[in-house]
Amino acid sequence: MRWDNLFDDLEGQLEQELSAEEIDLRAEEERLRLARMSLRDRLVAIREHGPAGVGAPIRLLLGAGRVVSVAPMTFGRDWFSADLVDESPRRSQCIVPLAAIAGLLLTRDQVVSSLGAASVAESGRSLSGRLGFGFVLRDLCRRRREVDIDIAAGAQHGTIDRVGRDHLDLALHDPGTPRRESAVRQLRVVPFAQVELVRL
Looking at the record's lineage, which domain of life comes first (predicted)? Predict the structure, then answer.
């Protein structure tokens, strides 16, 4: 009888140790998974699996403490496009470089969904997921699209003339006025690192 009790006791201790090892292993795997997550991954997870679904606003903290609400739509390698969510009934679109984000102001539900085990790596395999910020700016330049570029010094309205590897040339002119040499007030070279938001 004592042998049965001894074996039962040893079996219980072994099960406890195996359970503890399994719990430790799962905790370590979770730490490694979180360590590999980027800010982009968390934004994609909120967009895909957030409590309010796709198109729900996320509050971003940009430079100088400015807060904007956006509904992310498409993610690139180092940028994302979004609808600006503000008081106006008409939503305008924007492009946000990830490097311009000083912080995310999330609800508790958004934090939980951003940490979810969603397959966010898939979004990096799409064509847009591989395109860099410069590529998007070059496309706007090619289309001669009027833009508002928000930098720390304020919003600048104009047309992108050229896009280099790490900067763009912006011809400043009045909104609604076509980019003509006579309408250009100033030519400005803006480093990508200074761009907080590009409003379309």
Answer: Bacteria
Each domain of the chain, given as residue ranges in start order, spans: 1-36, 38-124, 132-200
Instruction: Collect all residues with Cβ–Cβ distance below 8 Å to 183 and sequence separation of at least 6.
Output: 173, 174, 177
Q: Is the dihedral of CA 53, 55, 59, 62 positive or negative?
A: positive
- What number of CA atoms fall less than 13 Å from residue 187's CA on the CB side? 7
Task: Give the model confidence (pLDDT) of 31-90 as tens digits.
Answer: 888 889 999 999 999 988 776 666 679 999 998 789 999 999 999 999 999 999 976 666
Q: Which residues contact 117 (CB under 8 A, 6 or more apart)?
A: 33
Residue 133, pLDDT > 80, answer yes
Q: How many residues does the chain have?
A: 200
122: DSSP letter:
G
Q: Which helix (H) or strand (E) holds 108?
A: helix 108-114
The tokens describing 128, both together, are 């847009």
The residue type found at 121 is: A
Confidence (pTM): 0.82
| Domain 132-200 CATH (choose: 3.40.630.30, 3.40.190.80, 3.40.720.10, 2.30.30.100) | 2.30.30.100
- Phi, psi at 104, each rounded to 5°: -110, 135
Fold type of domain 38-124? SH3 type barrels. (2.30.30)
